[in-house]
Specification:
mainly alpha
């Protein structure tokens, strides 16, 4: 019986350096990523030029803000009940009424005191 030696098969075709292959694929992946990012930025800029900014449309109107400001000083109403009544979240009230805490405390907001 003859036995084949693995050493003889390895020496005929040396394997490519693994590090080189990895670097080539990494460079290719980075290049493709840069193309995707550039295309995304171009698309966003084109959409912005057409007037599309993305995201959900706002539900807050000047009438809704006035209603919220009228209801906020009432100590019998919680922020949650006011938000439910107006059909918005409590976070929306905080985001769109910067002086909400002052109104809740019964103080006149600084902006309104000057007028």
């Amino acid at each position: 019986m003859r036995s084949a030696s693995l050493a003889s098969t390895r020496s005929s075709t040396p394997p490519p350096p693994a590090g080189l292959v990895f670097r080539v694929f990494a460079a290719l992946a980075e290049f493709i990523r840069e193309l995707i990012v550039a295309g995304t930025h171009e698309g966003l800029a084109a959409a912005h030029a057409r007037g599309h900014t993305g995201g959900c449309p706002t539900v807050v109107t000047p009438e809704l803000l006035k209603a919220a400001r009228d209801l906020l000083p009432d100590p019998e109403r919680s922020l949650t009940s006011i938000a439910k009544l107006l059909g918005v979240s409590v976070g929306t009230l905080y985001n769109h009424i910067p002086d909400l805490q002052e109104i809740r405390a019964g103080q006149q907001p600084a902006l309104m005191q000057r007028n």
